[in-house]
Design a protein that fits this description.
The chain is α+β, with helices and mostly antiparallel strands. 21% of the residues lie in helices and 44% in strands. The protein has 4 helices and 16 strands. The protein has a 16-stranded antiparallel beta barrel. A hairpin with a 2-residue loop joins strand 6 and strand 7. The longest helix has 56 residues.
Length: 409
């Protein structure tokens, strides 16, 4: 039987039991534990110092790399400026490359077929500053040039253009004469027909370039002008105009020529222009008498939606006894060309033209009907197919079916 005293002893034993199991460690054991903990703390501090050093080194390397990158960029920029860049822009950013080309197939009614890499042209230009630029045009005609070969290598344009004030500029060097529609703009996707029209080829005569100076600019909104003094033709005494082009190739400059044009584009879709060209001696001294020549040209272009109409007239009036004897004292021509865009890619055209290089003695003109289509694979790539019905002034037919592929970039 439990008594109060025995119960008290039992409770005391139960309470003191845990403390009896976990005895208090000795002083030696506690000192050893402290030494172990101190060693661990020292090791951790060492590791942290090594990590800090790596972070510092990495940061220094990154900073040094940034400095090298900046220095390299500065060297590259300075080098680009050294070869002709303007400000921070590189030489390449200020230089332009472009060109155009044409391949033709012609099937004539007399059974003759011809394939011709008619033109391959490269453009090179450079922008020296906002108001000063260079442009050039280098051409290979008929694929192969050289003695006895059908083609020619030609420099068609090489000039400097300077904007000396707002909307006014000066052109100096070799440039296209500002007459007609295709003489200045003759990339194949810009006109209808595989071959260029005969009026601008035989009367103007496109493509026609000379060397000199030209002022151009805007007189009023929509009204512009060109005024040029340049080298002139050197036609045979009494010959046709086209053969008188000197192409700035050691050209005789005994007699300079002058060209002026006014153009109005103030109404949307409308272009009206008139040009006059004068040379006091178009033979460059070959004729014994006066052979001054005047070329007058006027054209109109009207675009309204898918419909477009082009019309052009040109006429030479030349003094000189031999020119009068050959009938070449008067040379004239005109054409009208309506066209219609069936879709954005497909256009149809018809063109009627008359021209006469001996209108001084023969009143009958050579007449041509051209009709066909242009199909644009891209705004800069065109495929052409057309038929040309030709009646020469002597009554001979020279009809042809023509295919063309053209591009520009």
């Amino acid at each position: 039987m439990f008594t109060r005293s025995s119960l008290t002893l039992a409770i005391a034993a139960l309470v003191s039991a845990p403390f009896a199991v976990a005895e208090t460690p000795s002083i030696e054991a506690m000192w050893e534990l402290v030494q172990q903990q101190q060693a661990e703390i020292t090791a951790l501090k060492s590791q942290l110092k090594q990590t800090d050093k790596k972070i510092v080194v990495t940061t220094e390397l990154l900073a040094e790399t940034d400095i090298k990158v900046e220095a390299t960029a500065e060297i590259i920029e300075q080098g680009a400026q050294g070869i002709g860049s303007i400000g921070s822009a590189s030489w390449a950013e200020k230089t332009q490359l472009g060109g155009y080309g044409e391949h033709h197939f012609n099937h004539f009614e007399d059974g003759t077929d011809k394939i011709d890499a008619h033109r391959f042209v490269l453009y090179f230009g450079h922008q020296f500053s906002d108001d000063l630029r260079f442009f050039s045009e280098f051409e290979l005609e008929h694929s192969l040039a050289g003695e006895g070969k059908p083609g020619e290598v030609e420099l068609e344009q090489a000039y400097i253009e300077w904007d000396y004030t707002k909307n006014q500029s000066l052109v100096a060097g070799q440039f296209l004469i500002p007459i007609g529609l295709i003489n200045e703009t003759h990339e194949p996707e810009t006109f209808y027909g595989t071959e260029r029209n005969k009026i601008e080829k035989n009367i103007i005569p496109a493509t026609w370039w000379e060397t000199g100076v030209m002022f151009q600019g805007e007189i009023a909104p929509g009204l512009s002008y060109n005024a040029a003094m340049h080298s002139g033709l050197a036609a045979d005494d009494g010959g046709k105009i086209r053969g008188g082009r000197q192409k700035s190739a050691k050209a005789s400059a005994e007699d300079l020529a002058y060209t002026a044009r006014l153009k109005y584009t103030g109404i949307q879709g409308l272009e009206l222009a008139a040009s006059v060209h004068y040379q006091s001696d178009i033979t460059q001294g070959l004729a014994i008498d006066d052979t001054d020549g005047v070329l007058l040209e006027a054209h109109a272009v009207y675009n309204r939606g898918p419909l477009s109409v082009r019309a052009l007239w040109a006429e030479w009036d030349i003094e000189g006894e031999n020119f009068a004897l050959n009938g070449t004292d008067e040379q004239t021509g005109w054409y009208v060309e309506p066209s219609y865009k069936v879709t954005d890619d497909l256009g149809l055209f018809i063109r009627y033209s008359e021209y006469n290089n001996t209108a001084g003695i023969i009143s009958d003109d050579s007449k041509t009907w051209d009709y066909g289509l242009n199909y644009w694979l891209n705004p800069r790539v065109v495929v052409k197919a057309d038929y040309s019905n030709n009646v020469d002034k002597d009554g001979a037919d020279n009809d042809s079916f023509n295919l063309g592929l053209g591009w520009s970039f």
